Amino acid sequence: MALALQTFATVKDANAALKAQGTRYLGGGTLVVRAANEGDVSVSGLVTSTEPSLSTIAVAGDKVRIGASVTMATIAGHPELGTLAKAARAVGGPAIRNMATVGGNLFAPAPYGDFAVALLALDATVSTDSGETPIETFLANRDGSRAVVTSVNFTLPKADSFRFLKVSRVKPKGVSVLSIAAVLQQAPDGTVSAARIALGCMADRPMRARAAEKALIGRSLTKDGIAPALAAASDGTWPITDPIASAWYRNEVLPVHLGRLLLA
Amino acid sequence: MAKVPVQFTLNGSEKAEFVDSGTTLLNALRDKVGDTSPKGGCHQGTCGACSVIIDGELRLSCLTLAETCDGAVISTTSGLSENGVLHPLQRAFLDTFATQCGFCTPGMIMAAKVLLDHTPNPSRDEVVEALSGNICRCTGYEPIIQAVLTAARANSQNAA
Amino acid sequence: MELRKSYFADVRKDDLHEIGQPRPRSDSPGHVTGKTAFFADRNFPGMLHLKMVRSPHHHARIRSIDTSEAEKHPGVVKILTAKDVPHNVYTILILIQVGPEDETVLADGKVRWKGEAVVAVLAETERAAQEAAAKVKVDYEVLPAVFDMEEALKPGAPLVNEYHGQNYYLYDSGECRKVRFGDVEAGFTGADHVLEQSYQSSPIEHAPTETTGCVVAPEGNDRFTCYTNTQAMFFTLDNTSIILQMPGSKLHFVGGTVGGGFGGKVDVIVEPIAILGAKLTGRPVCFIYSREEEMQISSPRAAEKVVIKDGVMKDGRIVARKVTGYTDAGAYSRHSPYGAQKGAGHYPGPYTIPNVWIDTYCVYTNRTPSSAMRGFGVTIGDFALEVQMDKLARLIGMDPLEFRFINAYRDGDMKAHRQPTEGAALIECMQEASRAANWPVAEKYMAMSSYVKGA
Amino acid sequence: MAIRRGRGVAAINYPTGMNLGGDPTQALVHSTPTGNFMVTLSSVDLGQGMKQIMAQICAETIGVPTDRVVVDTADTDTGPHCMGTFASRGTHRAGNAVIQAAREARQVMLEVAAEELEVNASDLETDGQGNILVKGAPQKSISMFDVALSAHFKRGRSISGRGMFLIPRSYPEKETGAMKPSTCYAHACTVAEVEVDDETGEVTVLTVKNVFEIGRALNPKMVEQQLVGGSWMGISHALYETTEPYYPNRDHGGTDFNQYLMPGPGDLAETEIIVLERPSADGPYGAKGPGEMCANPQIPAVANAVFDAVGVRIDTLPITPERILRALKAQAAN
User: Fold this and answer.
1) Which of D72, A152, D131 lies closest to C27, judged by CA?
2) What is the pTM assigned to this prediction?
3) Is the ipTM here above 0.95?
């Protein structure tokens, strides 16, 4: 069967079409068109939707809703999302960023999906027509997910509390050895009062570094203060081994890079 | 097999084609329209040789379905020179010896053109970033970076 | 770039009109306007797309091949298996009498590496060819495989390639190409220090931006025009003639404009099967490697292992060098027996050493067949030699650059393969590097010359 | 964290051609009726600039500007045999064949000119601009345009020539290995300076200073292209490239340009290229083949620089951050 693209005005109709076997949702094309080009014959039908809400960004106070079809380039250039620009720019080169969508990034297997790492640190929720799901739950179940993602939603952190680091071997555009996103809240004395740390490439999909988060609470962001968090950074990781790096290497350098991010 | 109609503007000319649903823009341009300046180096989105400009944005034609370009304004390297006069970027690629095998050149020029359209006087870092999705295996990149910086200087001198 | 004209000015005339001039490249205007025609820029009505069914196993016996479902797939025009190829067992260097023929165009009874071509599918569209290829059923009996050269050379290792009968190439000199010069053991005995070190590389891909491929069009008169990005036109034509048992007069190859080669487009892989497809269907055929095929199926630069044992004196003279080189050919010869032999002629490097012993082996393993790449037979050897030189210099407490001056070859020095050195310029390169890198060496080295020893 | 700096040197030579198989290339040269020259070959341009260089070689030999020479190559119906573009042989072998063919064509051209000018052909010379002059009496001259017209329509002469350059095969002697594996040798010396992050094993190549001796730079800008690109590839080989990252394990081979690693435009070392020219005895205008050797010396120079920086030897290519980190940990454990 040749590939066939069906375009629908509403997400509802797209969701109905996606019930057919062999169909995949077409976002920016960077994942699914590539798969088809490479001879993945399990993909026989593509479904997409032009519903306008998929392509809009809404910022109300510190509440942000990003439509699933919004591209990395749009996020990187959005005047109110400057905090996240670094994470959006971490995805691909300029052409890829003009195509790759925030919805697609949620499905990108490691070593891809750097923006999803940021979303995980932001504790975002993922919306479909059937409701909102915490991103961690969504990522855990993404392989079986069929419904069109309509948006991601999160509370925008203060600029100085969001940190992001992507480590790659090729510059300026290389895929990840690993990526780290962190949202840190600090008490007036500088000690960490709340922390969310998300890791890319340390499992087959973005994961939280909960042991490290816990070990940071009440600590100052100094070499000694973060030492327990670094010691716990690799707890529960199951890094991928790929042409970029082995699982061993990723685990070895995770504390080094986390330390540099926290002390930056 | 049912064909899908698609119309777009390519380098200033109106084009109308019937394509198989699911045909990439790269294949439509090369096989249907006959513009072979975008090259198929990977069909994965990892080499940039197929880069074109769609509605002012750099895109990879290998990952773009032709039927999603209905009504779009598309530019490719084959349409860059006007009346036989080379675009400053093309001139600069010649003058700085920035081409060897030439396979990556049309994609590089597209990436560079979008940069200069938005940032007429880019820094070296901005040039490096703009070219970062395009692979060259012959030159080691430096001559290409120099070509883009040379074209930017030529542009600013002409504007002055 | 700077041309340092002061060196060798006495042996060079700089009075030419066109030579030495930075003329613009005639091909560049075509490149920057997108007008340059690469092979894949040729399109013909009714062109078929060829896709390969490839082995998922490193080493397996083929029990059976069932193409019946694939043949029924919409858009499929022809399916080719080993029996369709007139002279299926071939080797490319047979043109210079380097045999035996050891490789199949399409696997016949056995596969020897993961990715080996088994069945060729020709269809109206690329997609139809991919879908049909997925429907070809091949029943394999998996066999033990060997991936490590030292394992492959051990008695009892799985035999990779029956056409050789052992897991190494048999030269007229035996299991390796040999160079023997002086008395290397005596050299070691008399040396102040002996250092033996082992170096290793893994396979490297040429990664040209344009993948390997060809477009074939029947001319309508039983001749076939093949638009190709081969690096060697007649080499490919003549091998195709042998494989297809077709007179060369029926073949017309057009090429010469290639999107990067680096040695990766000297194997004769895509052209014969595409021409066969065109001949059997009467239709134009394109066979273009996907990027994945270019990366993992096309021949890489061989993995190599190089063991170097040196005898060195405290005053910096290397008095004996023994090199054992192993080239991982993968499952088939292609150009590897030549590369290993080229290595034998290259060692012991650009140094004058009185006692030299060299053995270079071409070893078969169950991996992607390797072949030529930029620096074929030399690149990895130079890595090994020059790291070894660094270690030797540090061993005797000498500056690494000065250590090289002491041993550098000069005009008239006899090389291990018994050719007198001519046109040497290593010393001058090192002198200029010393200046450019601000790496000073003793004045006596800056006063040396390649022309005459001791001058 | 410590960023540690080191430098390393390597010196190499590289053979031109492949005499172990017999190494021929042919060329044909002919003039058009208006005194332009066509070079017909079957040699392949991989991007190194074969077409341009053959035009310059033909132009120099005939005595015309390069833009009056057209190179028609790589059609087996028209071009005579070439062994192929590999082994740094293209410029050397095809260039010699073009010189021979161009000389033969030039001789016919001078004979026709001599008839037109009523002098001896041996008394004629060319000015490089497309004119044939009488030696010592340059006012007495004829343009190649007129000579070609005369040859075609009046004298009935074909201004053409055939070129064949063959290096005969060398058979290695079985026991001693005595052989003549190549013709001339190019040379190089590279000094590389690196920084190594001793916590991650990451290497940054700061500078490479490359000195290349290449016989003759037939077109210096094109030589520079080759040498700059080659130097980049050498660094790439040293630190990044392999299809089998866990060799001899066959798993995890890269299948695209994201996974097959090469330095990006943000990873470039400051690169200095210095070229020396010791013309080879048998090369076209003294040229040797620099295309392959220019990517070799950076590999050991970088390896030696890494050792100089952090004191561990990585004797396996590529020198990845992982290999360095493992070695550093082993070093610390001892």
Assistant:
1) D72
2) 0.98
3) yes
